[in-house]
Amino acid sequence: MSIQIPNYIENIASVTEEHTNTVSIRLECTCGCNRFFVTSTDDKAMYKEIENDFNKRFGSKVEIRSDKLGEVQYVRRNFFGKITDSANVKEYAYPSNRVVFFGKCQQCNHNYVIYDNWKFGFDAMEKEPPIIYRELKSSTQKDHTKGVGSEVYITYRNNIDEEDLLEMKEDYPNENLSILFSEIVIYISDDGYSKKKKIYQEETR
Ligand SMILES: [Zn+2]
What we know:
This protein has 205 residues and is mainly β.
């Protein structure tokens, strides 16, 4: 089974190597620049941010109740007992093991999502997206390139055979199968492909 560049990244990908089950690319911004500031989600900082948002909105006097449809809600009341604010509890749930990598072009500052394990890869098909798909703020990200733009290389591998893929197409007729891959490895380099250094690897099924 061959693998193609997942279509979420193809407009900024230039192929460096291609084999039966793997394809390797170097990121190239649409402006022509190939150096990026690379950051990724930091769970601890993310949890802290959600907690702060929650405390600011509901404080310690939060009340938990179910609405008419049985959905669990956080509720805040004023002095007279009138509900002044409410939110579905799912709004403050953080999807565990979520990993997102960003690449921000050194030249034009465009910020690309270069990987999101809740959206791309085989595992993403099984995941139920959170009610609020939180935009990730820069304060909650790990900095991999320490303020200096790096080249970014990504290798995608596919383990699935043709037969399984056909089956999958039947099971998930509405899924976008061109974002699927079995494994992703992300590298950064200051000086070409041979000097690349691995910063992340994940098997997605
Ligand atoms: Zn650019």
